[in-house]
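User: Reviewer 2 asked us to show a designed sequence for the structure in our supplementary figure. I'm pasting the structure tokens here. Could you produce the per-position amino acids so we can include them in the response letter?
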């Protein structure tokens, strides 16, 4: 179980999450040795106090959820959150600019955040919102992120109305595109079954963003037994 717990970014990212829920998620992240707890910026200080000394990383978001903030705003967000104690930033790519062919703007946008992240020796994951992209666009976006030098490409925010679950074949496509360039893949978006969790890992995901981490881990013996047969 501990082997798989480090794949999980425990993510209570819902608009009406209460402080009590955030504290509970932090306790769970510690108890199950999850890689990180992912919180909205408002709860960075709360989460930082809860997980101090536990080995659990603190992750937060920038340009969330639509990605169309100005680059200098996203960069300032990242700088502020890192100064508050965040270890990792999940930023949303400017999908509108990307779809409009403004690739130089997208590069500048990611690079502005990356510069702040690198000053703190932190990690940057770039969210593509893949369900709104064709396979060719996914490959292009992954290559763009890799060229700028971020650490991860991530499937989606997983929160938008009508969002589709992350798909194994999409994760595999992203992995095949970026692995040789040293980037990793984070899968997010309705990864709610242990079978799907394991399939995402097999497809190349190094991280899974989910609010169902405990359920995914407790389902491991049954899922592995099914796989054996």
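Assistant: Here is a per-position design you can include in the supplement:
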């Amino acid at each position: 179980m501990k082997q798989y717990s480090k794949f999980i970014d425990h993510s209570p990212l819902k608009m009406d999450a209460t402080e009590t829920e955030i504290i509970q998620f932090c306790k769970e992240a510690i108890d199950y040795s999850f890689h990180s707890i992912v919180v909205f910026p408002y709860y960075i200080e709360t989460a930082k106090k809860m997980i101090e000394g536990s080995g659990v990383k603190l992750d937060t978001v920038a340009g969330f959820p639509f990605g169309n903030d100005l680059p200098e705003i996203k960069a300032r967000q990242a700088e502020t959150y890192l100064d508050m104690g965040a270890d990792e930033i999940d930023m949303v790519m400017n999908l509108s600019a990307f779809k409009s062919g403004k690739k130089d703007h997208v590069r500048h946008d990611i690079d502005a955040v990356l510069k702040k992240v690198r000053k703190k020796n932190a990690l940057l994951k770039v969210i593509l919102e893949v369900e709104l992209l064709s396979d060719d666009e996914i490959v292009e976006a992954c290559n763009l992120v890799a060229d700028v030098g971020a650490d991860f490409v991530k499937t989606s925010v997983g929160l938008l109305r009508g969002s589709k679950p992350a798909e194994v074949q999409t994760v595999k496509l992203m992995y095949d595109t970026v692995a040789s360039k040293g980037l990793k893949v984070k899968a997010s978006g309705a990864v709610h079954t242990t079978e799907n969790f394991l399939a995402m890992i097999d497809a190349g995901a190094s991280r899974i963003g989910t609010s169902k981490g405990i359920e995914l881990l407790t389902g491991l013996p049954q899922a592995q037994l099914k796989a054996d047969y």
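For the response letter, you might also mention the following. The chain has one domain: 2-228. The first helix runs from residue 2 to 5.
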